[in-house]
Amino acid sequence: MNQSFYIGAVGAQHQLYHLNVHGDNIANVNTYGFKADRAYFTALLYQNQRGADTELPMGVGTRMLMTSTDYSQGGPADTGRKLDYCIEGEGFFGVVDLATGDVTFTRNGAFTMSELERPTGEVDEEGQPIMETVYCLGDGTGRFVLSRDGGLIQFTDTDEELPIGIFDFANYDGKIRLDETGFVPIDKNGNLWYGTGKLVQGYLERSNADLADEITKVIEAQRAYSAALKMVITSDEIESTINNLRN
To answer: In degrees rounded to 5, what are phi and psi of residue 112?
Structure first.
C-alpha cells in the first residue's frame, strides 16, 4: 500500500494525543497549583529516494515523542483565608498519606484543619488503646501537610504561625504526576532539600496554563489532524483508482 497511507494514519493518531494534552491543560486552567504539560514531536525514520542526480531523503511522518511539565510559577490569587498558602519562588509543599506513608509534592496550598485519631499511649480497662482527636493541617483529601522537620503540623492556636515545610529537588524532569496538582519524585530528581521559596499566607497560586495559548495549540492540532486524515483518504482513493484500472 502507498506509504502516505501509513504516514497519515500515524500523524492522525499522535495529533489526538496532542489534543488530549492541551485539552487537559484547558480543563485545569482554574485549578490552583496546576502545572501545564507541553507536547514535543520528533520525525520518524527517513528513507532515501533516488532523484534525478542523487538520492534524496524522504521522511515517513512524525510522532509525539514526549510530554514535559512546565513548572513555571503561576500568578497569586488573593483568597483572604488564613489556611491558604502559596510559595513565592522555588519549592513544593509536602503532603503525606498516613495509611500508606506515601508523600506527594504539590504547589496547591489550599489547606484545611483536619481531624486525626491517634493513640494516647494508654489503655482502658479492657486493654484497648485510648484514642484522642487532634487537629492537624491537611489538604482536604485525607492527607496531612508536612512541617519543616518532616512531622505533622498540629493546631494549638488558630492564630499561630504554622511551620509549613517547603521542599525542593535539584531536577524536576521525569516527576510522576499523580493528579491535577500532585507529583511524586523519581531517582533522577535527586535528594530532597529545603526549598528557597517564600511562604505567603492568604494567597493561592493560579494555574500556569494560559488559555489563549492552549486554545491556539488545540486549533493547531485540529488542523494537523484534519490534514493527516485527508492524506489517508487521498491515499485510499489512489489505491481504489489503481485497482479499478486493473479490472
So the answer is: -140, 165
Residues of the chain below pLDDT 70: 1-2, 45-59, 157-160, 246-247
Q: Which string of DSSP letters, residue by residue, matches 34-84?
A: ---EEEEEEE--EEEEE-SSSEEEEE--EEEEEEEE--PPPPEEE---TTB
Co-location of 60 and 117 in the same domain: no
Domain shared by 93 and 194, yes or no: yes
As a 3-state breakdown, the chain gives helix, strand, coil percent values, each rounded to 5, of: 25, 35, 40
pLDDT at position 165 is: 95
CB–CB of 84/108 below 8 Å? no
Asked if 142 and 58 sit in the same domain, the reply is no
Q: What is the largest CA-CA distance in the chain?
A: 98
Question: For the chain, what is the domain count?
Answer: 2
* 85 and 186 co-located in one domain: yes
pLDDT for residue 47:
60
What would the pLDDT profile of 147-159 be if each residue is shown by its tens digit?
A: 999 999 988 765 6
C-beta neighbour count of 215 within 10 angstroms = 14
Q: How many helices (H) and strands (E) does the chain have?
A: 2, 17
35 and 71 in contact (C-beta within 8 Å)? yes
Whole-number Å distance between alpha carbons of 198 and 204: 13
Q: What is the DSSP letter of 246?
A: H
Residue 229: CB atoms within 10 A of its CB come to: 15
110, 201 Cβ separation under 8 angstroms: no
Same domain (yes/no): 80, 199: yes
Residues 24 and 138 in one domain: no
181 and 216: one domain? Answer: no
Domain enclosing residue 175, as ranges:
76-205
